[in-house]
Amino acid sequence: MSAVVSLKQVSKCYKKTKVVDNVDLTVEKGQILGLVGPNGAGKTTCLQAMLGLISYQGEIDILGFEPRKNRAKMLENVAYIADVAVLPKWLTAAQAIKYMAGVHPRFNADKARTFLSKTNINESSKVGTLSKGMITQLHLALILALDVSVLILDEPTLGLDILTRRQFYSHLLEDFYSEEKAIVVTTHQIEEIEHILTDVAFIQDGNIIIAESVEQIKDRFKLVAVSDECQELASSMLPLCTNRLMGITTMLFDQHSREQLEAVGKVSSPSLADIFVGVMAKEVY
């Protein structure tokens, strides 16, 4: 399977500060990659480089195009939603649809109208009268009406209520995603997108710490509820992190066999959020 997004040894410096450091990433058709890291980790900078919005060192290939040299051609088949999506307050939903139909060859105006008909947004509604959640729905309608191969999302549900966030990702899967398309989404709240991801990359201080499929990473890490009499033995096995809550001690382990760990407690599969916290704690300390 060929990559639709490829970053090789990509770096970015602002003055003397390196905010992205030799990043390697690959995304193939059918994959939904979560680029996960704390605020300031370099997530947005990576996306800006992919979109050709900033200069960078290294190699980036998006659908066969180098973003800085062939940005206009690349964007014919790439869509993007930023964490702060800005539309003019005077613009109506109908005008937004008309504008997109005029500037993008892959935009389906009827599909955008169909999506909006499922919301509380009237085509005559001006952006300035809409809530943040409704503005996000309008952006989503415009994006889902694009027949593109790659969708890039930068913290798209930041500041939205939980119902709107869930609806957003539900529409994303039902109305956009297919095995012929790829999605890259950044977040620092991995628990919100864990259920849609096929792959995940953890980024810290501009470095990719882990980049694996969700299946691989879930198989690699184990969470153990350690019995009291086995805590010393379990600690000697060098867990990534230890958590004590309401009298129960849990430890996160990397690349230990289930048989080894069952000797010290009850083994379960951790969530991606558990793994992220453990890996980040290891990197910090």
Give a structural overview.
The chain starts with a strand and ends with a helix. The protein is built from 10 helices and 13 strands. The relative contact order is 0.15. A hairpin with a 2-residue loop joins strand 8 and strand 9. It is globular and about 70 Å long. The strands form 3 sheets. A 6-stranded mixed beta sheet has the order 5-6-7-3-8-9, sandwiched between helices. A 4-stranded antiparallel beta sheet has the order 11-12-10-13. Helix 4 runs antiparallel to helix 5 and helix 5 runs parallel beside helix 6. It folds into 2 domains: 203 residues, P-loop containing nucleotide triphosphate hydrolases (Rossmann fold), CATH 3.40.50.300; 68 residues. With 285 residues, it is an alpha/beta fold.
The top level CATH class name of the largest domain: Alpha Beta
Do you know the CATH topology of the largest domain? Rossmann fold
Give the SSE string.
Answer: EEEHEHEHHHEHEEEHEHEEHEH
What is the CA-atom radius of gyration, in angstroms?
A: 21 Å
Strand content: 25-35%
Work out the helicity level.
25-40%
Q: What is the number of domains? A: 2
The major beta sheet can be summarized as: 6 strands, mixed
Q: Main sheet: which strands, in order across?
A: 5-6-7-3-8-9
Counting copies of identical and different chains, the oligomeric state is: single chain
What is the CATH superfamily of the largest domain?
P-loop containing nucleotide triphosphate hydrolases
What's the overall geometry?
globular
Count every helix, treating DSSP H or I runs of 4 or more residues as helices: 10
Distance between the termini: 38 Å
Low-confidence runs: none
CATH architecture of the largest domain: 3-Layer(aba) Sandwich
